[in-house]
Design goal:
The structure is a single chain. This protein is an all-beta fold and about 475 residues long. Among the domains are: about 110 residues; about 70 residues, SH3 type barrels (Roll); about 130 residues, Immunoglobulin-like, CATH 2.60.40. Helices cover about 5% and strands about 55% of the residues. Strands 1, 2, 4, 14, 17, 18, 19 and 20 form an eight-stranded mixed beta sheet that branches.
Amino acid sequence: MIFTFALATAIASLAPDANEITVYNQGFGLIKETRILNLKAGLQTIAVEDVASRIETNSVGIKSLTDPEGFSVLEQNYQYDLISPLAILNKSVGQKVRFIRTIGNQRDTLEGTLISSPTSIVGNPDGSSQQTYNGMVIRTDDGRIVLSPSGEIEVSSVPQGLISRPTLLWQIEAAKAGQNTIELSYLTQGMNWNADYVLMYDGIGTADMKGWVTLTNQSGIGFKDAKLKLLAGDVARVQPQGMAIGGRGGVVNMAKAAAPAFAEESMFEYHLYTLQRPATVANNEIKQLSLLEGKGLKVTKKLIIDSMQGYNGYYPNQGEVGTGDLKPQVRLEFVNSKENNMGMPLPKGNIKIYQRDSSGSVQMLGEAAIDHTPRDEKLSLVVGQSFDIRADRKRTNFRMIDDRTAEESFEINVRNRKEVSDTVHVLERHWGDWKVTDKSMNFTKADAITMEFVVDLKAGEERKITYTVVTHW
């Protein structure tokens, strides 16, 4: 305790006068604060205790707002050897210690010299309040050696070098004495945010969407009434070894959700979201904040059969690829535009999709992940697989025309077991130089390798697609 008091007399900085946090969705944050220092003229040491324990020490910046020309930082140290029972005992080897042990109703005092610090401190299995100091070795004043004693231990003082909180120590030279307002900035690990969205689909082509920010602070320090900013984008960072020191929501009632509280702006090649009110972010806290809201979005449901999805290339041979029973993929698609009651750039995150059943209860349809999505771009959410529409695909003919040319014929049978009509998009993929020589229905060429058949099915209807393709490579 003597050392801690001595250090406190050297602290000339007050608590942050104002602070600003920018959190990146890559696991770190940028902290900017203004502080008032009580300086004397000349060379001096300033201690700042209340900084994040996971600070990146090579990122610290400090400048004077009061006297920029008469203020300079000559040296900076970061001390993080914190006071704890193990730390105190590790630094007390060779010093006198005293144990107080309770045996029945008797208290026994054991005094001696600590010759080996403990590797751990654990509670006794009998539930007593005494601690066992595993690995500790004491030489008593009468010459006995005591191993891993149990009880309460006392030391005469806190060893030098231990501090109660992580501390920045600056060696400063000031041209004149008095109060000096400085700006302190640094990066810290342990801060992150992500976007979570809820899409309430009505089942007939429209939806309401609500976006939330989920903010996590494990930096080792809390922030009171801070200006909070969130940066969305893929920021390049070098990852040096050991640069950091130290140690979701449910269904939303769309009609009653709070108005979005963030203002969005473009910055460089990223997007910045600024909360329009002060925020208090406690250490070891997960906080959710309203990000955006859109009502009456026009949404399209799309059933897709894509037998070759995931293949990066395929040339025909005697084996078959993409044949067998198939389940259509179900997608919901909409455009992120002002005309569609949206239009804010969407940070990457997860979207949970819900729909109300005939009784009015909310049911979850699926969950999809989105990447950073600019305005006016289309989102295509994979919700799940269709239950009542099935298909099977088989290759009905194969022959090699020459060493690098093959002819194949395919048959895709699509069945609608619903009591209502629906539309299925059947995608067929071929690589190389390919040409369809025969087909049972028309298709569109979506890109260089993909052809798309649009199959309209009445309730209970089955339709068969056949085609022949010649591929040269």
